[in-house]
Amino acid sequence: MKYNKFNLLLVLILLLSIAGATLLQIPSHTMLAQNLQNLLHIPLFAVLSLVFIRLFSGVFQKPLALYLTVVIIALLAGALIEVLQGFTGRPFSGTDIIRDMIGTGIGIVVHAWLVKRLTWPAVMIIILALMAKDSYQFALMLQHYHARNAAFPLLLDLNAAWSATFSGLRLAERNRDLVIYKAGAYPGLSVLEPYPDWRGYRALVFVVENLEESPVQLVLRVHDADHNFQHADRFNKAFRLSPGINAYRIPLKAIASSPQQRVLDLSRVGEIIFFIPKVSSDTRLRFDHIGLE
């Protein structure tokens, strides 16, 4: 069985490119950049499938056999890449394999159009159908970033739709602005990727309503993009929440000077966390306002 050397070289280059794009830890400091990097699986595997089709077109005379072979090879290549990711610290992702298959499907559909097995309108309908979910999620994330930026200096509004992207929960549940901290160690609410540049403001302010009958100890943690995940490299402060409404104002100078070995970068704030060190039973807190002034 003879293969064109150019085709084999092209396959090798593409496989190395895909492996490099997925195995290497490409810096991506935002969820948007990470999402975009994940979406690259689709065009890369679309091109790879077209190369595989060209490589095996002289072997399989029936289109169905050719396309099925390409799908199997692309599936194995995608699965192998995901397994190898484990050695770089990135977890195995079934979602990425699905994107690989979407890209492979798009490549097959484009080839079917090139050899006049499909019309252009049919190709576009199929591609749009394959891309619908990922396109919608990416567009929704873009919309949420726009809404987050427009709401600034408000940092998080748990009653707003965009908070779904920028809030995280650990051992906790949320019903709009009501957060239920579940029993366990360090349950918390995170403000993921708050608007990063806090320069020009004086204080971080937040209002929390303690719906329990007894006081609750709540810890506030703030770190920047250069955080080394050591306790001494971030802002940490405990608050005693009395039953009812509690309002707090923390000077940004205090937050900036909190790391022991450096100054916290207020132009690149990375995350805010409100956690309870230890919860023995469900604890209900309502977050009314988190922002700057």
Q: What's the gyration radius in Å?
A: 25 Å
**Regarding quaternary structure, how should these chains be classified?**
single chain
What are the low-pLDDT stretches, counting only 5+ consecutive residues below 50? none
| Broad shape | elongated
Notable characteristics:
5-stranded antiparallel β-sheet; 293 residues; 6-stranded antiparallel β-sheet; 8 helices
Q: Quick recap of the structure?
A:
This protein is an alpha+beta fold.
Description:
By secondary structure, this protein is an alpha+beta fold. The protein is 44% helix and 25% strand. The chain is built from eight helices and 13 strands. A hairpin with a 2-residue loop joins strand 3 and strand 4.
Q: Topology of this structure?
A:
Layout: H1 5-23, H2 31-39, H3 41-56, H4 63-85, H5 94-114, H6 120-151, E1 154-156, H7 163-166, E2 167-170, E3 172-175, E4 178-181, E5 184-185, E6 188-192, E7 203-210, E8 216-224, E9 235-241, E10 244-251, H8 252-256, E11 269-275, E12 278-279, E13 283-292
Antiparallel strand pairs: 1-13, 2-6, 3-4, 4-13, 5-12, 6-11, 7-10, 7-13, 8-9, 8-11
